[in-house]
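Observation: inputs received (chain + copper (II) ion).
Thought: call the complex predictor directly.
Action: predict_structure
Action Input:
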Amino acid sequence: MKYLISLVFIFFSLAVFAEEMQVFELHIKDHQFSPAELQIPAGTKVKLLVKNKDATPEEFESYELNREKVIPGNSEATVYIGPLDPGTYGFFGEFHMDTAQGKIIAD
Ligand SMILES: [Cu+2]
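Observation:
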């Protein structure tokens, strides 16, 4: 019985652990992303929290990641990415493409 309880506890712990996803923050300020190069682990799904600190809306977009999301001014949005192969994936702010450029480096 004690063994069974331990086993159930271990399975429960693993389930909780599996639910945890790494969160990475990306800020938009003065129509620029920071960090402009964001390192994330390859081979696992991660959560990207994009915080727009400008008063104007921006659209996070990436052809390589196949993501597109409008973030209103002074607000934030969540974008899930991955699991990715190791490599570099460009993204940009579609509303300010001349300055809002960045890349995600998965390794
Ligand atoms: Cu777009």
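Thought: report the result.
Final Answer: The domain at 21-106 is CATH 2.60.40.420 (Immunoglobulin-like). The helical segments are 2-19.
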